Amino acid sequence: MQQPYAIELKGITKTFGSVVANHDVSLNVRQGEILALLKRIVRQIRNRFSDTVLLFRADSHHCKPAVHAWCEAHNAEFVIGLGPNRALDRQFEFSLKTA
Question: How far apart are CA 55 and CA 77, in angstroms?
Answer without folding.
Answer: 5
